[in-house]
Each structure stands twice: as structure tokens, then as C-alpha cells.
Amino acid sequence: MDIPAPSNSTTKTSTTSAGAEDGAH
């Protein structure tokens, strides 16, 4: 959650918070 941008979707998916982040966005 360091980068609050959907650009890092690749890294976001790698994180465990991917589900939460994906739902938030």
C-alpha cells in the first residue's frame, strides 16, 4: 500500500492486501 495508485496493479496483486485493495478501487 506504499503506492496508492492502480498503476502498481502487478505489485498489488502480489501483496496479501490485493483483495482489499482491488475491492477498494
Characterise this structure.
Residues 7-17 have a biased composition (Low complexity). Residues 1-25 are annotated as: Disordered. With 25 residues, the chain is an all-alpha fold. The protein is 52% helix and 0% strand. It contains 2 helices and no strands.
Secondary structure elements and pairings:
Elements: H1 9-14, H2 18-24
N-end to C-end Cα span: 12 Å
Helical residue percent? 40-55%
State the total count of DSSP E strands: 0
Note the main sheet.
Answer: none
Number of helices: 2
Broad structural category: mainly alpha
Mean pLDDT across residues: 59
- Give the overall shape, derived from the CA principal axes: flat
Strand proportion: under 5%
Poorly predicted ranges: none
SSE order, as H and E? HH
Determine Rg (CA atoms, Å): 7 Å
Region (Disordered): 1-25
Biased composition (Low complexity): 7-17
Highlighted features:
25 residues, 0% strand, mainly alpha
Offer a quick outline of the entry.
The protein is mainly α and 25 residues long. The chain has two helices and no strands.
